[in-house]
């Protein structure tokens, strides 16, 4: 049997995981998350689609993440750094050691690839 090594980043047929930031990390609003984890591979590699409703919370990254914003507007601010507004079409990497805040201004959906 042929096993393809190609995987489309599609959420069709993928169960959604619902969640929210830990209550002690929330700064404002009541953000809720929806995540469709499309791919999980050995070595702590994940790929999928994540969405959040408006709110602001503290973030802390121990992993490497590539993000591509599909819709919405968010502001990501690194502790001691400048606020960066991201919107549909923007791509970026967040590196291990990032500490700061993520503020969803308009419900934001992103594609992600994480390497833990």
From TrEMBL:
Gene3D superfamilies referenced in this protein's UniProt entry, alphabetically: Jelly Rolls (2.60.120.10)
(S)-ureidoglycine aminohydrolase cupin domain segment(s): 40-112
Record Pfam families: Cupin_3 (PF05899)
Organism phylogeny: Bacteria, Pseudomonadati, Pseudomonadota, Alphaproteobacteria, Hyphomicrobiales
SUPFAM superfamilies registered for this protein in UniProt: RmlC-like cupins
Highest taxon in the source lineage: Bacteria
The name this protein goes by in its record: Cupin domain-containing protein
Organism from which the protein derives: Aquamicrobium zhengzhouense
